[in-house]
Each structure stands twice: as C-alpha cells, then as structure tokens.
TrEMBL record:
Coiled coil: none annotated. It comes from Candidatus Staskawiczbacteria bacterium RIFCSPLOWO2_01_FULL_38_12b. Keywords: Membrane, Transmembrane, Transmembrane helix. The chain crosses the membrane at residues 12-31, 258-280. The keyword Lipoprotein does not apply. This is Fibronectin type-III domain-containing protein.
C-alpha cells in the first residue's frame, strides 16, 4: 500500500506541474513591443534664448498590455522623460549642433524596444530660412485664427516649395496639427481652428518643411479663450467619452489564461503537501478491502448453506 500511495502522489504532482508549465509557456510567449521616436527634426535657432521642441514618441503593445516610456537625450533638458511626448529644451549655445534622443518602451510583461530621433539645430543666420509664429486673432466663440509666416533673412527666398502648418494644444505637447499647405515663396499663412475649450490657455507654433525634408519650427506663443462662452455643465460632473484601458486580463478572472495555470499548479501542490491524496487513496483502499470482505463472507455463507443442505449418510 505504501508503494501505491507514493506512486499515486508522484503521478498527480507530476501532472499538476506539467499542466502549469504547459500553460505557463503559452502565456509567456509574448511578442516584443515596438517603439517609434518620431521623425528627425530640424529646428531653426532664431535667437539667443532657449529653443524648444516636442518629441513625438509612441509605442505599440501587441499583447494587450500597457507601456511605460523612458527618454534619454545626450544634451538639453526634458520636461518629463517618463511620458511619450516630452518637451525638449536646447541650451542657448545650441547653434549648428545635433542632439540624439533615445526612446525606450517597456511593457508590463517585461519586454522592451528602443528607437532614436535626431534633433538638428540650425543657425538661422547661416541657413537664412526663417519660420515665424505670429499672434492669434479672432479669438471668440471657442474659435481662433492662427497666423505665421516664412521668409529668408537676406530677403532672397529661393527654397522652392515649402509645406506649412500649425501645431496647437493646451500644453507644450500640443496634440493637434493642422493640414499641410503648400507655399512657393515667402509670405504669411493662417489656419482657422474651432471647438476650443472656454477659459483655456492654448499653446501654438508654426512649422514648415522644405523639399529637402528639413522641418523648421517657429517660436511657441499662447492665447486664452474667453470664459463667457462656457458650456452648461449639469451637476454630477462632466460626462466624457469612456476610454478603454487595457489591463491584460479578461472578464473571466479565474479562467484567464494568465491565472489558470498558476491556479492549477497551486491547488495540486497544496493537495500534495496537505496529504489529501493519501486520504483519498486510503479511503479507496478501505472501500476495496470492505468489498472483498463482503464477497468472501457471502461465499462462506453459501458454502455453509450448501453443507447444511447436503444429504447426510
């Protein structure tokens, strides 16, 4: 009986471990995330004050989890290195230099990926191409007109086709970008924007890309929308659009592919340590012994009956 107990306990423990390993391997077969630090930037250094630009990083997590972001630049200053789109500030002596910024994204499964972006700082006095952000106008009824211009510092524009646009938003990360328009010479351009929030300060800047791919940005400017056009908000808070945040889990918590193998392995180990398998085996052995005893008793009773009923000489 001891050998039977030992063999059964080892078999059950082996099966529990195998099931946990099988499901565990399938759970751990995750795909690496991807990182995108954005396109290389060409910033026009227009004056001796610090120049800023926004790093447009992003990542993709294919396993349904979430990502954390970490930026590192070999110079300058980051507003927050732990967000996807921090503000990068260049020192005042950054004319005609380049900065290398590295973005690393890490998933909640421990996997990571990296990508680099180069920030090229140009001296406008040397390159002659100038992008200027001008004051916003028509700021009323939750709308405004953004204004900018492109020119050359020597008044001799010969850069061919240029694409111009604006970036704007409630912070230096902007978050909104207008359609790109074509310009073939020096001049002004503007963009009407609407659906702005009342009583809110907005940042905006102009941008232009030359035919050689270089992107130049104007300085950051701000405007504030008036408070008189505020929308009516009912008591109980502002109702917004729900946002899905992936946790990597499903609604079936206990049967989730992450927890099921762990649950099976833990239950099997607990039953093995607590001796529950031995108790079950002893009960089965006693039941089988009792069954054999009953069969033997019935057989003996039949023999006695046959002996009593047999004729005697």
């Amino acid at each position: 009986m001891y050998k039977y107990h030992s063999f059964s306990k080892n078999v059950v423990l082996f099966l529990a471990i195998c099931i946990g390993c099988f499901y565990g391997i399938s759970v751990l077969a995750y795909i690496n995330p991807t990182a995108d630090a954005g396109s290389d930037q060409y910033v026009n250094f227009a004056d001796p004050t610090n120049t800023i630009t926004v790093l447009h990083g992003r990542g993709y997590e294919p396993n349904g989890g979430y990502l954390t972001y970490t930026w590192y630049c070999n110079g300058g200053y980051l507003s927050n290195p732990k967000i996807a789109e921090p503000v990068f500030t260049m020192p005042s002596n950054s004319q005609s230099v380049s900065y290398n910024c590295n973005l690393t994204v890490t998933s909640n499964f421990g996997l990571s990926a990296s990508d680099n972006v180069i920030i090229n700082v140009n001296n406008s006095a040397t390159n002659n191409f100038v992008v200027k952000t001008e004051a916003a106008t028509n700021n009323y009824n939750n709308q405004a007109i953004l204004r900018g211009s492109i020119s050359s510092s020597n008044n001799n524009y010969n850069y061919g086709t240029a694409y111009v646009w604006f970036e704007w938003g409630p912070s230096l990360s902007y978050g909104h970008q207008s359609n790109h328009k074509v310009m073939t010479g020096a001049g002004s351009f503007e963009q009407h924007i609407a659906e702005l929030l009342p009583n809110t300060t907005y940042h905006f800047r102009s941008a232009s890309q030359l035919s050689n791919g270089q992107i130049y940005y104007g300085s950051d400017m701000i405007f504030a929308t008036p408070a008189g056009n505020a929308n009516i908000v009912l008591a109980g808070g502002i109702v917004g659009t729900p946002t899905d945040v992936s946790t990597g889990l499903t609604n079936d918590f206990l049967t989730d592919s992450f927890f099921l193998p762990l649950l099976i392995a833990l239950i099997g180990t607990w039953m093995y340590i607590s001796g529950m398998f031995a108790s079950i085996e002893e009960w089965l052995w006693q039941r089988k012994s009792r069954h054999r005893g009953l069969k033997a008793a019935k057989k003996l009773q039949r023999k006695i009956t046959q002996f009593k009923n047999s004729p005697r000489e």
